[in-house]
Amino acid sequence: MNAILDPHRVQALVIGGSAGGIEALLQLLPALPADCPIPVVVLVHLPDGHYSLLPDVFAPHVALPVKEADEKEALSPGTLYFAPPGYHLLIERNRTFSLSTEPPVHYSRPAIDVLFETAADAYGPTLAALLLTGANEDGAAGLAQVTRHGGTVLVQDPAEARIPTMPLAGLRATGGQAIVLPLASLALALRALRPEER
Predict the structure, then answer these.
(1) Is 56 a catalytic residue?
(2) Beta carbons of 7 and 196 less than 8 angstroms apart
(3) Do the domain assignments include residue 125?
(4) Domain range for residue 50?
(5) How many domains, the chain?
(6) Would 186 be classed as within a structural domain?
(7) What's 130's domain CATH number?
(8) Helix (H, G, I), strand (E, B), or coil: what is residue 112?
(9) Active-site option among 45, 88, 106, 149
(10) Closest Cα to residue 4, out of 195, 191, 156?
(11) Which of 14, 119, 154, 162 has the fewest CB atoms within 10 Å, measured from its CB?
């Protein structure tokens, strides 16, 4: 079987969402296997100046260690990271995180575009990026960058998204090269993220 997210090829997964994203992630992230061999980085738009409870919310439901990404922290396989509120989250070419207080993008900080674009530069064709439900076009330019670098691009089916604006923008930006799936199929793809059997 040719897995959508082949861990032989994919070295990192980045996921972005906005309105409706928490509910979507509660369907997706519990599917991640305990032996997931790659880092998974999640960015959800949150109000600026608020403490994020996302690691606490998801930790009981996910088999992986769950934490907020820290400045200069190296990405570790088998770890689920959440972007902290109030900062852009970047992945440097040496595959460490950095935080930025640059102006918001699409009225958002953290912005999905910033994470996706820097992750594409760091991981090239070994990156997978998934864009979920949301009410603006953040993430579309980032998906286009992942596509240009030869990465794997996935979009939640707009027909089932709580707000389809974000996935529709992602589809337009990638020129139809994105893999469009409902949440149930995306969860199956995450469940298949396991080390290769030798």
Answers:
(1) no
(2) yes
(3) yes
(4) 12-191
(5) 1
(6) yes
(7) 3.40.50.180
(8) helix
(9) 45
(10) 191
(11) 162
CA dist 22 and 44 (Å) reads 8
In a domain, 196, yes or no: no
Give the pLDDT confidence score for residue 49 in this predicted structure. Answer: 63
Q: What is the pLDDT of residue 175?
A: 92
Cis peptide bond prior to 110, omega within 30° of 0: yes
Side chain identity, residue 152: T
At 86, is the secondary structure helix, strand, or coil? coil
**Residue 100 annotated in active site:** no
18 is an active site residue: yes
Below-70 pLDDT ranges, the chain? 1-2, 48-50, 197-198
- Write down the catalytic residue from 88, 106, 113, 138: 138
| Residue 5 is assigned to a structural domain of this protein | no
Catalytic residue (choose from 18, 88, 113, 149): 18
pLDDT at 198: 38
